[in-house]
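Hey,
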Amino acid sequence: MFQWHDSDLQILLILGAFALFGMIVYLIKHKKIEVKYSIIWLAFSATMILFALFPYLVLVLGDISGVANPVNFIFMTLFAFSLLIMLSLSAVISGFSTKIKRLAQANALLEKRVRELEKKFENKGE
């Protein structure tokens, strides 16, 4: 049976973090995601790259934050980034909701104005 060694896992984490970073850059380059929405993702992938390249950093930060196990510190970091991403998406959705509401109101006013103009022209044509 295959046994995972720490160096194998570190290489896998490095490759995964660089793949995530590359995918984010690809999405930005091909205008699939705007830079302002990808900043958190870029920060997350950069953090994972740092953790993968310098595993001692995880130990030090885990000790500073009082987390007993380095893996728990990684999960805590993942959870914190997940919360940040959800918060930023909620803010974006709220902004879009407000814009859609304004557009719907402006559209209703324009429709009313068009109907009034149509009635005006119908009355003049008679």
